[in-house]
Write a structure and sequence with these properties.
Elements (H helix, E strand, L loop, with lengths): L6 E8 L2 E8 L12 H20 L6 H19 L6 H8 L8 H22 L6 H11 L35 H15 L8 H15 L6 H15 L11 H6 L1 H14 L2 H38 L5 H13 L2 E3 H8 L3 H13 L4 E2 L8 E3 L1 H8 L6
Antiparallel strand pairs: 1-2, 3-5, 4-5
Helix pairs in contact: 1-11, 2-4, 3-4, 4-5, 4-8, 6-7, 7-8, 7-11, 10-11, 11-12, 11-15, 12-14, 13-14
Length: about 375
């Protein structure tokens, strides 16, 4: 449905030139969203796929293993959309303090994303509401170091930003003036917690994402935090027991359509086309995540069976292997510290895993060697190659 523009323009002067900044109308859309039979079926399929994703953790002996890996994969993908060139392997090496030489700025941004997500999950688990304060806290983590660390981490912007172009005057889109940001974000927060006009949670997340991207409340990091907001709405409202749905790969693969639909919502008020695209992405992403989890389960079962066949020496090797399931890039020292095995025993366990083809050494050095669980990383790397 074409409702017309979903906001108004305010004229102001920025850096000596006149700028028309877009101020979005508070949610929900008016007139209300249309739910045709086809759209209702899309919603039902997406919701069913989310339910399967939420239950997939029951397949895993340790659900946090999958969460650890999937969060990092999402961090890489979401940061790549913003222009970083880090890979999943780069991040794992960066998190391993004994691994020198990993490019700092790109990987630090990805690591910050992990920290922001984990902080948000921890706060929600404490009973803290999904609110603007939490978003600011997560933003502070997101921009805590590396590029962007001077761009007011944890604070709504106090100057005009823009999207596309070299300055506000030739930008593709200019978000609200800084003096309107606080009010716009307060309206968004009220929408998220307004039970008087309930929308299905998936639809609420879709609407909230567009509104956040339109407000662009921070000087940097809006795209990454806006994508996190989707997962946090679903998690906060109980649709996902863990924040396991991440749409960055879908948005990356359909980048032009994604940005075109955001623009169509702003100019024409056609929320329905965006909702359809969003629900298709949710279904596809959830189905793929379930498949990834099942492949990891099969991998773990197969490798554990081969280790069990070793006989009496299997016990210690399994302890080392379980470390690799939690951290697929590892050193002998880390195995020793986490398993409380002696260094010679930990070293022998890794040598056995290398002989079995489970791990391979990736530095080529004789000292301070680093070992990678190659097939695990390959599964998580799919689709996360740098742009």
């Amino acid at each position: 449905m074409r409702r017309g523009p979903t906001g108004t323009y305010e004229t102001s002067t920025t850096d000596g030139e006149v700028v028309r900044a877009f101020v979005p109308t508070p949610l929900p859309p008016h007139p209300p969203l249309e739910f045709s039979r086809a759209r209702q079926r899309l919603l039902e399929r997406a919701t069913l796929a989310l339910g399967k994703l939420d239950s997939v953790t029951l397949l895993l002996p340790d659900p946090d293993v999958f969460l650890y890996a999937y969060v990092r994969r999402e961090a890489v993908l979401s940061s790549q959309i913003e222009g970083t060139q880090s890979s999943f392997s780069d991040l794992l090496l960066f998190e391993l303090e004994e691994a020198p030489g990993v490019p700092f700025d790109d990987v630090a941004e990805v690591s910050n994303y992990v920290a922001a997500l984990e902080h948000g999950v921890h706060r929600l688990a404490e009973g803290f509401p999904l609110c603007n304060r939490l978003l600011r806290e997560m933003h502070a983590k997101l921009l805590s170091r590396g590029r962007g660390s001077t761009r007011s981490p944890g604070e709504f912007r106090r100057s005009q930003n823009w999207i596309g172009g070299t300055r506000p005057g030739n930008a593709l889109f200019v978000p609200p003036p800084p003096q309107r940001v606080e009010a716009c974000m307060s309206d968004l927060e009220r929408f998220l917690h307004d039970d008087r006009r309930p929308y299905p949670t998936l639809v609420k997340a879709a609407l909230a994402h567009v509104q956040f991207e339109t407000i662009h409340p921070f000087l940097d990091g809006n795209g990454r935090l806006g994508r996190l907001l989707i997962s946090f709405v679903l998690h906060h409202e109980g649709l996902l027991s863990k924040p396991l749905l991440y749409l960055s790969l879908f948005f990356k693969q359909h980048r032009e359509q994604y940005y075109a639909l955001l623009d169509t919502v702003r100019r024409e008020g056609d929320w329905e086309r965006w909702i359809d695209f969003f629900l298709e992405g949710v279904e596809l992403t959830a189905v793929n995540a379930v498949q990834t989890a099942r492949r990891l389960v099969e991998l773990f079962k197969g490798d554990e069976a081969r280790i069990q066949s070793l006989g009496r020496s299997a016990g210690n090797v399994l302890r080392a292997y379980q470390m690799l399931c939690r951290r697929p890039v590892i050193t002998i020292n880390e195995v020793r510290e986490q398993t409380e095995l002696s260094y010679p025993t930990a070293s022998k366990c890794i040598e056995t895993l290398e002989r079995l083809g489970v791990v391979h050494e990736i530095t080529g050095r004789k000292r301070n060697r680093i070992f990678a669980y190659g097939r695990y990383i390959e599964i998580l790397n799919e689709g996360s190659e740098p742009l």
